[in-house]
Amino acid sequence: MQEPDGSWRLHELADHLQAVAELASHFGRPFGGADWARLSGLWHDLGKYRAPFQAYIRRASGLQGEGAHLEGAPGRITHSTAGALWAEQQLGLGGRVLAYLIAGHHAGLHDWTAGLEYRLSLEQSRQELTESLAASPPPEVLRGPEFSPDLRSIPGGKRGFHLWLRMLFSCLVDADFLDTESFMDPAKVGRRGGWPGLSALQGLFNTQILELDRRARATAVNALRRQIRADCVAAAALEPGFFSLTVPTGGGKTLSSMAFGLEHAVRFDKRRIVYVIPYTSIIEQTAEVFRGIFGDAVVEHHSNAEADPGQETARSRLACENWDAPIIVTTSVQFFESLFAARTSRCRKLHNLADSVVILDEAQLLPPAFLQPILDVLNLLSRHYGVSVVLSTATQPALASRAYFDPRQDIRGLDQVREIIPDPDELYRRLQRVVVRRPEDWHEPIGWPDLAEELSRHESVLAIVNTRRQARDLHGLMPSGTLHLSALMCGAHRSAVIGRIKARLGAGTPTRVVSTQLVEAGVDVDFPLVYRAVAGLDSIAQAAGRCNREGCLDKGEVHVFVPPEAPPPGHLRKAADATLAVWYQWRGDPLERSLFAAYFERLYYASDLDAARVSELLQVDGHTLGVSLRTAAERFRLIQDDSSPIIVRYLGPDGCDDAVDKLIGKLREQGAERWLMRKLQRYIVNIPRRDALRLLHQGDVEEIMPGLFVQASDILYHSELGLLIGGGDQGTALLV
């Protein structure tokens, strides 16, 4: 690293190895991986002792301080294979565990077959180890601590091998990143840590709740919300494991689930709370609520601003999150894809999941095509890593183990899930605030012009459709002043519109809104009338939660309609079909709680619950410890259409906010600093990569970093509709 006077300060290798070993060991202790993690840290950079690498690192170069820590770019000298081979030589088959970690600590975890196995067999790899040993590394590095690997103690056995490997990998790469960061930017070390404990945060939470209750109107709904929170606090005394929080929409699940999480964490010495939200488009709302209570102790993390991993720099790697804060708010995509990831930046955070409380908000939205590997990994986390999991939803999915006459449809589910609410059926009866009206003829769709005319007769109404294009088509037919919501609007824009909606409704001002399903979760609006295009029963129930939310009317009305276009093929269409099946000849309440189990059973039976065959790829060969980690990571993609993040120049409600321009300027100057990427998340819209490349070709966007684009055209972002990507933009690849 270059000092201000122009001299170079080198990171002493032996010091680095010892520091990484100790830190990795500390990270691995909560799940019994301390010894494995220590050795991986001690040997991970063994190849840096070889003469070619030492010559490289001492060459006068502007990349000297930072670039030497990366592999794979032209001119860089590899160094991660020597430690992998040394581990195998010293520990036999057990050393292969460390070989996965060490060989992948820059480029990510490899498959064994045609990946790591091939790499370790190369003559140049053996030469790397020979040259490293010839440099006489310190005996305490080569020897390491006394350790006898026992593969029989792997948490979860063969099924749990892949997660255990990733957890150990997380310990190594986070320790490596942190020690490198302390060398490259010593001032940053002082800004890390120092988080308040969960007990202190619980005190802040309780104080805020008392104030909210004091200001709340004395209504039956608010009385029930207080009772739900009390039930959550009482149930937090139950032993760690799986829990369900079954509360109708509008019952205050967000704050109640946090009340459970804090009480449970403090009582059982859990380290953090991870709040997982299904949509990127609504994460800002929940994070904002929690930041209002806990301040900077909340880290909001999703993948909007992650650059192309193939173009990582030292600084972009250090900018990735390691989830060391006490409260993490993240998305389902970020959470679950990390649990199956191979990339260093994605895996880095995983060790911090041990001994945590994970709250899965809107758990019914777990994607059926990946349900089996998701259920498997949740079971591993709960049984072997001290994680308590809360399934929070108004419409509990049918996730228990089941066997069918067709074994391919069997489910290895979550068993022994304990319900937090003493009597959910009674709670649903008391919180029933709407009447659901279904069309008389399911074969007779209503056209958008006719629907717009019908909506226009009402002063305040919310209409929810299935795709972005449908939202824009319908909005274009509505009277002037109708508001629009979709994920083609950046988070800052959506927050401003939602704030405007709430203010108008609170003041009794007529308010018409056309939205995609992003409004159905995490957005607390209260309309007297809601129209919902036919969809999954869970989506219709969520839509109903935006109607008469506060119970000020005797009954609100929810109208389910058949749109002029069928739901897009895939999950949305299967969900709509399952709804029609359970409603067929049903004459009772269309949102009767007992219907949801039948709905989800139909939906899951109609779906391939491991469509990408991820579980098969993660079966380990007991003789070689071979497992396809990288291929599984590539296949486990919850959003199948590759998307690209666009930083948009949203100017705020008054049209003159230059905050985003200042942030873009800092991005150009400083690169992907973590604090900066967090702030930029508020100004990002995700679109299919093919559309981003088309906009790039047209000159409407520029690629400011590999894989990250910024708006260049002044007319690309509309003050009401968001990003105008054209070319059939409002399609079905990114629906919300």
Which descriptors apply to this entry?
736 residues; alpha/beta; Rossmann fold; 7-stranded parallel sheet; 31 helices; 19 strands; 11% strand; globular; disordered N terminus
CATH class of the largest domain, named Alpha Beta
Helix/strand/pairing category: alpha/beta
CATH architecture level-2 label of the largest domain: 3-Layer(aba) Sandwich
The CATH topology of the largest domain, please? Rossmann fold
Query: In terms of per-residue confidence, which ranges show pLDDT below 50 for 5 or more consecutive residues?
Result: 1-10, 60-68, 307-319, 728-735
User: What is the averaged pLDDT score?
Assistant: 88
Radius of gyration: 27 Å
Helix fraction?
Answer: 40-55%
| Strand-residue proportion | 5-15%
Q: Based on DSSP secondary structure assignment, what is the total number of beta strands?
A: 19
Number of helices: 31
| CATH H-level homologous superfamily name of the largest domain | P-loop containing nucleotide triphosphate hydrolases
Overall 3D geometry? globular
Distance between the termini: 45 Å
- How do the strands line up in the largest sheet? 3-4-2-5-6-1-7
What is the compact description of this entry?
The protein is an alpha/beta fold. The chain folds into 4 domains: 13-192, no CATH class; 198-428, 3-Layer(aba) Sandwich (Rossmann fold), CATH 3.40.50.300; 432-605, P-loop containing nucleotide triphosphate hydrolases (Rossmann fold, 3-Layer(aba) Sandwich); 643-723, no CATH class.
Structural notes for this entry:
The structure is a single chain. This protein is α/β, with parallel strands linked by helices. The chain folds into 4 domains: 13-192, no CATH class; 198-428, P-loop containing nucleotide triphosphate hydrolases (Rossmann fold, 3-Layer(aba) Sandwich); 432-605, P-loop containing nucleotide triphosphate hydrolases (Rossmann fold); 643-723, no CATH class. It has 31 helices and 19 strands. Strands 3-4-2-5-6-1-7 form a 7-stranded parallel β-sheet, sandwiched between helices. A hairpin with a 3-residue loop joins strand 18 and strand 19 (722-723). Helix 13 (220-235) packs parallel to helix 14. It is globular, with a radius of gyration of 27 Å. The two termini are 45 Å apart. Mean pLDDT is 88; it is low at 1-10, 60-68, 307-319 and 728-735.
